[in-house]
Design brief:
two-stranded antiparallel ribbon, mainly alpha, 6% strand, Arc Repressor Mutant, subunit A, disordered N terminus, single chain
């Protein structure tokens, strides 16, 4: 099964055209996503919310692993955790198995804040989904799931 010369360029152009069409939709989604977080109290910067979600998802996390997950330096991660701890959203505790290692733990208040932000996002997205047909919602869900899988496969290197 041979390919016509230049067909790879056509596929690349098609992928880029698809990416350009998706950009507007993603920007609308991001606006909706961020607006829901801005309504929550306390108002937290995106990076702080991301840190809290990461810690909730990986309870064994220490400061070094958080910095790696967020793609930031250790001093930046430490200052970020200082702010979250001062706000009562995070606690640092000594690891029971390794007393030199500090474990990051969400406080009950931190979990409530994350739950509030998540629920606000769910309500905003559900309101948008009201204007979509069931088939469109299913297609969106399938496409986003495939996107997540392809992205994860590309970062496993």
């Amino acid at each position: 099964m041979g390919c016509a010369e230049g067909s790879d360029d056509g596929r690349r152009e098609s992928r880029e055209a698809t990416a350009r069409r998706v950009v507007d939709a993603v920007e609308s989604l991001v606006v909706c996503w961020l607006a829901a977080a801005e309504e929550a109290m306390p108002r937290l910067p995106d990076r702080q919310l991301l840190a809290l979600r990461t810690i909730r998802r990986r309870p064994e996390l220490n400061l070094t692993a958080l910095a790696e997950d967020l793609g930031i330096g250790l001093p930046t991660a430490s200052r970020l955790c200082d702010r979250l701890e001062a706000a009562g959203l995070l606690e640092r505790s000594v690891q029971p198995r390794n007393r030199r290692e500090v474990q990051l733990v969400l406080t009950p208040y931190g979990r409530r804040v994350l739950t509030d932000v998540t629920e606000r996002r769910v309500r905003r997205l559900a309101a948008v989904f009201e204007g979509m047909t069931p088939m469109q919602r299913t297609a969106l869900e399938s496409g986003l799931f495939a996107f997540r899988q392809a992205q994860a496969a590309g970062t496993d290197d």
